[in-house]
Fold this sequence. Notes:
This protein is an alpha/beta fold and 183 residues long. 32% of the residues lie in helices and 21% in strands. The chain is built from five helices and seven strands. The chain has a seven-stranded mixed β-sheet with strand order 1-3-2-4-7-5-6, with helices on both faces.
Amino acid sequence: KNGYLENGLAKISGKSSKICLLTSYLCHPSMANNELSGPLVLLGVYERIKSWPNRNLNYHFLVNPETIGSICYLNDHKNLLKKKMHSGMVFTCLGGPKNKLSYKKSRLEDNPLNKLFTYFGDRKICDIRNFDPRSGSDERQYCSSELNLPMGQISRTIYDQYFQYHTSGDNKKFMNIKKLISS
Length: 183
């Protein structure tokens, strides 16, 4: 049956034709760290980048349902992304109690965000995780073998690594607003 899925997309223009895709998802709206933190940090990053007087890259901010939303978005935009994507990142689980951010590399090892976060990891500023398609979030769709886009993922208190994950305990008491702002 034909149908559609709406994604939320906002764009901020830059000087070049290259795109930095920043995305998060909404599919379990009652979970604070797992669901609410990513879109809130994405909104903060949007406001910050929008205030920059000069931007080289074009920034695309995408909010969609996890997995199926990114698959639908890729169905419509994969050719554009294959030609113009400079870098990208999925924002998820950014409000939990862990002190350090954790970056999951894309499969495409030689990309700008992998290099930047490897630099931060070497200086113990953040933790680094290697790409593994067996677990994760929407980065798995962007980094599929067909596309292999430069899409990493950033988290603080990582999905499936805390007791409250996918329970009613992932609430606003578990999510720390100061950690969210820091993210």
